[in-house]
UniProtKB/TrEMBL annotation:
Record's protein name: Acyl-peptide hydrolase
Keywords: Acetylation, Hydrolase, Protease, Serine protease, Signal
Domain Peptidase S9 prolyl oligopeptidase catalytic: 449-652
Species whose genome carries this gene: Aliidiomarina soli
Function according to Swiss-Prot or TrEMBL: This enzyme catalyzes the hydrolysis of the N-terminal peptide bond of an N-acetylated peptide to generate an N-acetylated amino acid and a peptide with a free N-terminus. It preferentially cleaves off Ac-Ala, Ac-Met and Ac-Ser. Also, involved in the degradation of oxidized and glycated proteins.
Domain Dipeptidylpeptidase IV N-terminal intervals: 171-259
One GO BP annotation of this record: proteolysis
GO molecular function: serine-type endopeptidase activity
InterPro entries in UniProt: 6-blade_b-propeller_TolB-like (IPR011042), AB_hydrolase_fold (IPR029058), Pept_S9_AS (IPR002471), Peptidase_S9_cat (IPR001375), Peptidase_S9B_N (IPR002469), WD40 (IPR011659)
Pfam families noted in UniProt: DPPIV_N (PF00930), PD40 (PF07676), Peptidase_S9 (PF00326)
UniProt key word Protease: yes
Length: 662
């Protein structure tokens, strides 16, 4: 009955928890993971190390719980656990001895360590770390008098990648590979040069070398995705190139027996979406084999089976994460679906897993009514391990999610989508509806918990979301239907989804709303230039003008060469034809904009262009600027609640009764 409905409140963003980065013990009996929860005082998500038996018993914290903890990594003998914590005031490496429970800080690093990895003998750590380039400013000015307050000195920049979304303006320098004794000591730098060591690093079986991936091309601007795998000798720091592929070769992982390396990458065809394939080669780079050539899905992550006979890997298919095993001599066998749940703001796919002996696995399990929990997979049996959100679930009514498929009105393409019903939904009533559009554009939504959408459903809105053409998890051809052609018929797919839901009879056609973030902001602003059916729109961190975007976004070498037929000044007509700003003259729908002021992916200047154009045209519009927020608007819980709250405020204004029945 409706009286029992207890919808989520905005403040419940602080109740969310999720289980991430599982690291299962080889015996498969227990797993260490990062328990992420929301801290009301700091307005941040914090991670703490917890352990639980894989039968779900004995859930307990592993540390005293001060600081933000991440990256738990077992020592090769499983007697110690390394992790990164900022307990000391900066991100440092810590060790926990499993027998005594004693923990100790073992590093004093100047910058945060990444890709932490134990040597096979358990005596060394390898990790990546930012390494500043010490350079004098090219202009030397007379110094200021003692005690004077002068303006900050100007910054001289000549690097390609001078700012990154989420990190801001970067000091000059690169991420390099280091080793350090596990009992502490001075880190020794193994790589140097004008390139970054990124992603997985993997020790050779004898511990004498480390494999890593980097883009060392002379002109990385011209080849932004073309990385290769290298081997560096730990003693001499001598470097050997292992692959020479046309495209990325990354995440090298040496096989348990030490004779082979698995990695991911693809043959670069300069397409907007290119699925990551799983490759195996000998450690000298010979006999490269593409294991997933026939899969036509992107490999998200992978781990060697402990006996070295195969590789477990995850991939998304039709909006859902799957785990599969590819034996080296055979074919891939899918083991389970339901992998995901790490995205908690919008229903994006994405999960993690960890491999024990004998085919036992732990993975983050997705569900539409809660964020990621851990689950155990043994043989074909899956069972839940954690229930971190049980308290949250039992107290509130969460909107139910129903899948639908439709056939495109422009061709025979099949499109998948989902309807989220407001708690207490009664199909005999008429509801306002929000179409919420994902970004990427090469990304995918799925039946995954999404707090932003839930909070809007809690306010009485039916929320519809789809994977229009261009989305991932349906194969490369589907994703590339918008190659050099975005936005285009993806708009039709979205409208087909609205038509389908309207035809069900429970949506008030006068109360249709549209919103989307990033690529979803592109499609929202595009849609309202092509139809007046929506009563109001919310355009979140959009691209409005592809020329200004490619020349201000952090990933400009990639966007300008992979998403367009050529550089902007040679293709002005193409860039402008696909830019929402070119069509703003047709917009009549009231628009609310919402963007982070520190967004370097889709800079706020895009939002400002649109806002000012709408004002020039006299279209009802407003702009919400989120101080300090990057492209990942949801990272601060207060912003996670602000976005749906502003959406509901704006949409309610344009409902027949001003939203008074909510
Ligand atoms: C349409 S411009 C690209 C923005 C961005 N794509 C890659 O970074 C994007 O759309 N991001 C999505 C997630 O992939 C988002 O929702 O922020």
């Amino acid at each position: 009955a409706e009286s029992e409905v207890n919808p989520l409140q905005y403040d419940d963003v602080f109740a969310l928890e999720l289980a991430a980065d599982p690291q299962v013990h080889a015996n498969g009996n227990h797993v260490v993971f990062v328990r992420r929860s929301m801290d009301r005082q700091t307005d941040r998500m914090v991670g703490r190390l917890w352990q639980v038996a894989t039968d779900g018993s004995n859930l307990r914290p592993l540390t005293s719980g001060e600081g933000n903890e991440s990256s738990p990594r077992w020592s090769p003998d499983f007697e110690r656990l390394a992790y990164v914590s900022d307990q000391s005031g900066s991100q440092q490496i810590h060790i926990r001895w499993q027998d005594s429970g004693h923990t100790s800080l073992v590093s004093t690093l100047p910058f945060s360590p990444g890709s932490l990895s134990w040597s096979p003998d358990g005596e060394w750590f390898a990790f990546t770390m930012f390494t500043p380039e010490s350079r004098q400013a090219p202009v030397q000015l007379p110094g200021k008098p003692a005690g004077a307050e002068w303006a900050e000195a100007p910054t001289y920049i000549d690097s390609v990648q001078y700012r990154r979304d989420g990190a801001g303006y970067s000091p000059q320098g690169n991420s390099h590979l280091y080793v350090m004794p596990v009992e502490g000591g001075t880190p020794r730098q193994l790589t140097e040069g004008d390139y970054d060591v990124r992603g997985t690093i993997s020790w050779s079986h004898d511990g004498e070398a480390i494999y890593y991936s980097a883009n060392k091309n002379e002109n990385p601007v011209a080849e932004p995705v073309n990385s290769d795998i290298y081997r560096v000798e730990v003693d001499s720091a001598e470097v050997q190139r292992i692959t020479n592929t046309n495209g990325p070769a990354s995440e090298p992982k040496v096989s348990p027996g030490g004779r082979q390396i698995a990695f991911v990458g693809y043959q670069d065809r300069q397409l907007a979406h290119q699925a990551n394939r799983l490759y195996v080669m000998n450690t000298d780079g010979s006999e490269i084999r593409n294991l997933t050539e026939d899969l036509d899905r992107s490999v998200s992550s992978f781990e060697w089976a402990r006996d070295g006979r195969g590789i477990y890997f995850s991939y998304d298919d039709e909006g859902e994460g799957h785990l599969a095993l590819h034996t080296l001599r055979g074919v891939a066998e899918t083991l389970t679906d339901g992998v995901g749940g790490l995205s908690y703001s919008r229903p994006y796919t994405g999960g993690q897993f960890s491999v024990a002996d004998n085919g036992k696995l732990v993975f983050t399990q997705m569900a539409s009514n809660r964020p990621a929990e851990l689950a155990f997979l043994e043989g074909s049996q899956t069972r839940p391990i954690t229930q971190l959100n049980r308290d949250f679930l039992s107290a509130f009514s969460v909107g139910e999610v129903e899948e639908f498929w439709l056939e495109s009105s422009v061709d025979d393409t099949r499109i998948q989508g989902w309807i989220m019903y407001p708690p207490g939904f009664d199909e005999s009533k008429q509801y306002p509806m929000i179409l919420e559009i994902h970004g990427g554009p090469h990304a995918a939504y799925g039946p995954v918990f999404a707090m932003e959408l839930q909070l809007m459903a809690a306010q009485g809105y039916v929320v519809v979301y789809t994977n229009p053409r261009g989305s991932t998890s349906y194969g490369e051809d589907f994703a590339n239907l918008i190659h050099h052609n975005y936005p285009s018929n993806d708009y039709d797919d979205l409208m087909d989804a609205v038509d389908l839901v309207v035809s069900r009879g429970f949506v008030d056609e006068e109360e249709l709303f549209i919103m989307g973030g990033s690529g979803g902001g592109v499609l929202t602003s595009w849609s309202i230039a092509h139809t007046d059916r929506f009563a109001a729109a919310m355009v979140v961190n959009p691209v409005i003008n592809w020329i200004s975007f490619t020349l201000t976004a952090d990933m400009y070498p990639y966007f300008s060469q992979y998403w367009f037929p050529g550089l902007p000044w040679d293709n002005v007509e193409h860039y402008m034809e696909y830019s929402p700003i070119s069509h703003v003259g047709k917009v009549n729908t009231p628009v609310l904009l919402f963007t982070g002021e520190s967004d370097h992916r889709t800079p706020i200047s895009e939002t400002e262009q649109y806002y000012q154009a709408l004002k020039l045209r006299g279209v009802e519009s407003a702009m919400v600027r989120v101080p300090g927020a990057s492209h990942a608007l949801h990272l601060r819980p207060s912003n996670l609640m602000a976005k749906p709250a502003y959406a509901v405020y704006w949409f309610d204004r344009f409902r027949a009764n001003g939203g008074e029945s909510n």
